[in-house]
Design a protein that fits this description.
Strand content: 15-25%
Structural class: alpha/beta
Radius of gyration: 24 Å
């Protein structure tokens, strides 16, 4: 007998899912699958097992669940979700309660109600059936306990936060801290997720290590714990609320990547002019700056595209896409689907070369190096679009601050910016600054520039930083 165990990491949304089973029984389960489910099907074939169960630890808010998609593609697996706290779903599930057990050959999973991040949250203990009572060796913790952190309890609104904080405190102290030090913890998220504050870089940990190092486990007094949790929570991303609703009602079954049709340049231009779609240019910032369609938002080809699409776009409005290489189209479609975007009005067939060859108008965004910015610092309006904690760690002299995520509904004049004077946007590396620059252009700012390398390049050049 060989246990089958595989972790699947989805970059950008910092999501971790798992395949676990046993090759002697030929059965396996998947925990918290992402929307692009081919990876689980390929793993099952590689290990010679059948995925018989798909488990959800809770109703996710940060990514679109792939559970329904995977069950559909498998043609008959059981979709299991929490039945605790009167959880309701808009699709068929087998409801799991505390203590329910599922056997996969020599491996057994046991559901444990671990509320706090959400009321219905379940963790799944991993047992070795041959070891009897001393069989627990791991826990799929979902979003209850992370490496160095814990699941935030404030995503369901102020009216439920106090109760969830109490539940989280009880979950950490009365369940996790009572486990043996050697029990291995497998969370649903790694560093970069906003589902917890300052999640650690390691993909897994042990109860003993977290007992020593995780600050969420170091508070015996509830009021002290409550103050600590409130102080450390990052801003809740915009897409969390609509995704929570989508995952409860039932994510769409796509049977593959979301569908999108190619549009010749002239038809694409007409689609842009209608104004009933969101225009997104996914090229790298230098390509976007060199020439793009007026009104486009720049979300470049990095894994974090998923998160920034969620932050900046509307789920109910179709997307018009510009891509650099159409052979990468499926990657972009799944990146959007990760955060719930599955409606597309079309993509520009032939890319910007086809647009240029059709003689259609171009908008340019000048790129300003940090050396040029240093030379002309007193002549331009400098806008820092990083998060508040980044700003507090140091910024370019004379800069004003407006977090790019707060620009999704309009710039509203910015922090005293003059639309008729040059505005230079910067962030950590230039990625978010290019998003901000495209939004400033759309808001009617006459002269907008982006800084490639941004604050990282500024510091590397040895230029002054103020706090």
């Amino acid at each position: 007998m060989t246990m089958v165990f595989q972790r699947v990491e989805t970059q950008g949304i910092a999501q971790l899912s798992y395949l676990i089973g046993d090759d002697s029984s030929g059965t396996a389960a998947v925990i918290d699958p992402r929307p692009s489910v081919d990876v689980y099907l390929e793993l099952a074939r590689r290990y010679g097992v059948a995925i018989t169960h798909v488990f959800e630890t809770h109703i996710h808010a940060d990514f679109m669940s792939g559970a329904r998609e995977l069950v559909h593609r498998l043609g008959g697996a059981q979709l299991c979700a929490s039945g605790e706290a009167k959880a309701e779903y808009g699709f068929d599930v087998e409801k799991v309660h505390d203590g329910d057990r599922f056997d996969f050959g020599a491996v057994a999973l046991v559901g444990r109600h671990t509320p706090g991040h959400t009321p219905e949250h379940l963790s799944y203990e991993i047992h070795e059936r041959s070891k009897g009572e001393n069989s627990l060796w791991g826990v799929f913790t979902g979003d209850s306990l992370f490496v160095g952190s814990a699941g935030r309890p404030d995503l369901l609104g102020e009216e439920q936060t106090d109760e969830l904080v109490q539940q989280l405190f009880a979950t950490l102290r009365d369940y996790f801290l009572k486990l043996d030090d050697g029990v291995i913890l497998y969370p649903c998220h790694g560093a970069g997720s906003a589902c917890g504050a300052d999640i650690g870089e390691r993909p897994m940990s042990t109860v003993g290590y977290e007992r020593r190092t995780n600050p969420f486990l170091h508070h015996a007094d509830f009021q002290e714990f409550k103050a600590f949790v409130a102080e450390g929570a990052p801003p809740a991303p915009h897409h969390y609320k609509p995704l929570k609703k989508l995952n409860a009602e039932g994510p769409p079954v796509l049977s593959g990547a979301p569908r999108v049709r190619g549009l010749p340049a002239e038809r694409f231009a007409k689609a842009c002019d209608r104004g009933d779609a969101q225009l997104v240019d996914t090229r790298q910032m230098l390509g976007f700056g060199g020439g793009h369609i007026e009104g486009a938002m720049n979300l470049g080809p990095r894994p974090e595209l998923s998160v920034w699409a969620g932050q900046m776009l509307e789920h109910d409005t179709p997307i018009l896409l510009v891509v650099e290489d159409e052979s990468d189209l499926d990657w972009f479609l799944w990146s959007f689907a990760n955060t719930g975007f599955t409606k597309f009005a079309g993509y520009l067939a032939g890319g910007m070369a086809a647009w240029e060859n059709a003689g259609l108008p171009l908008k340019r965004t000048p790129q300003m190096s940090v050396h040029e910015l240093k030379e002309h610092l007193q002549e331009v309006q400098v806008l820092d679009v990083r998060a508040p904690d980044e700003w507090q760690g140091g910024h370019i002299p004379g800069a004003r601050r407006l977090y790019v995520a707060d620009m999704r509904d309009g710039v509203n004049g910015g922090p005293g910016l003059d639309k008729q004077k040059p505005v230079v946007a910067y962030c950590g590396s230039g990625y978010r600054a290019s998003i901000a620059a495209s939004l400033l252009e759309r808001a009617g700012y006459r002269d907008v520039r982006n800084v490639p390398g941004s604050f990282q390049a500024w510091k590397a050049s040895g230029y002054e930083v103020v706090s």
